[in-house]
Amino acid sequence: MPLSPTTTARLDHVLATGQRDHRLPSVAAGLVRGGELVWSGAVGTSDGRADGPPVDSDTQFRMGSITKTIVAVAVMRLRDEGLIDLTDRFGTHVPGSALDDVTIEQLLSHAGGVQAETESGWWERTPGGDWDHLVGSGVGTRFRSGRRFHYSNTGYAALGRLLEVVRERPWFDVVREELLEPLGMRRTTPRPSGPAAQGLAVHPFADVLLHEPEHDGGAMAPAGQLWTTVEDLARWAALLGGRTESLLAESTLAEMVEPHHVVDEPGQPWNGAHGLGWQVWNDGGARTAGHGGSMPGFLAMQRVHLDAAGGDGPPGQAGDGVVLLTNTTASVALKTLPKQLLRTLRELELPEVTPWVAAGTSEVLELAGTWHWGSATETAKFVGEHLVLGTPGAGRGSRFERVGSGVDNWVGLDGYYTGEPLQVVRRADGSVSHLDLATFRFTRTPYDPHGDVPGGVDERGWH
């Protein structure tokens, strides 16, 4: 559904104002809704000159660390094929480095204690060597594996090497063949190709520019090598928003965007975490995921709402996302401009509302209504295909999805009962006796003596 002219004009104005106020040589951005690029805009020139080539949605910029998310998805595909396990030690597949005892999951979530950067040379500005050269330089760990979140570029170099060893071909060939080509991301390349922006640094105290070098990072390339366009990055945002095109199981994507390790900044409230490759944020109750990117001369951002809730902001559709690319080394624009664009979309373009229809079945009525866990009271109701016990997000409230046919077996989806079984226990005549939820008994009356309550019920009853 096309955006209204009013929304488009407002978005264009937000982007143009951001380019001017943040002194960005050029900036290109796009918004995704329903898995489609619904708006794109670009301001400035690829070389920063007033008369230079104007950028557009097909201009390549370096995406920096957003590269890591593509590597992570390729690694998770290995797991889903049974070729690796996330608990495997790195050295099981790629032996001979100081990272042998770090698990693959810890590398994906930056929890392996692996050092952030290389041992010598600013790898983001100088050509890199191969894997053996990186290992020989003495790359190792700074913390005990599993202790804490510690962002690591070298950890993703290791994951790129893992792809190469297991797939028996270069890491970029793996991601190109398995992910980029199927998604139509043909303008995402390891080096600039076709129309591309020049990497630039803007002087902090004067309106002058400095060219940044472009190079091949070698073994470090999986940490931030790739170049892309707004159109291509929007396709990657659509995958994060749920349009996986059968390249990744929905359950695997959900696993990847779970908060695995909190990003703990001293003196700051916890509102960010890291999943398996993806950054995850909680902004006033709005859950988003994505990744930022930074390489000398370039900044990038991809951010996608995981649900329709807006938190403190306006509601929208699950999968609403923003991508932004700019050719400057340093700017606070990345913290504000993507959020402004995404908020504008959600404020001005109300989400479509799917009409409610009575699509339930009468078989669930024997489970609906009031239940008691001991002397506590909970209400069971059905919302769509889910059994909802209590209020999800409050106490031990949770949604449950059906396991198999019938209504007797369920599994928890939220909070305390995530993954835990709920079984409907019936009497000999087929009527419902009680619910067994991970050994807790829910009965129709408090401490029903006929409900097989563990520990029994005092024979004197209530008195």
From TrEMBL:
Pfam families membership: Beta-lactamase, DUF7586
SUPFAM superfamilies linked to this entry: beta-lactamase/transpeptidase-like
Transmembrane segments: none
Domain DUF7586: 362-444
Domain Beta-lactamase-related: 12-331
PANTHER family listed in its UniProt record: D-ALANYL-D-ALANINE CARBOXYPEPTIDASE (PTHR46825:SF7), D-ALANYL-D-ALANINE-CARBOXYPEPTIDASE/ENDOPEPTIDASE AMPH (PTHR46825)
Protein name: Beta-lactamase
Organism this protein belongs to: Knoellia sinensis KCTC 19936
Phylogenetic classification of the source organism: Bacteria, Bacillati, Actinomycetota, Actinomycetes, Micrococcales
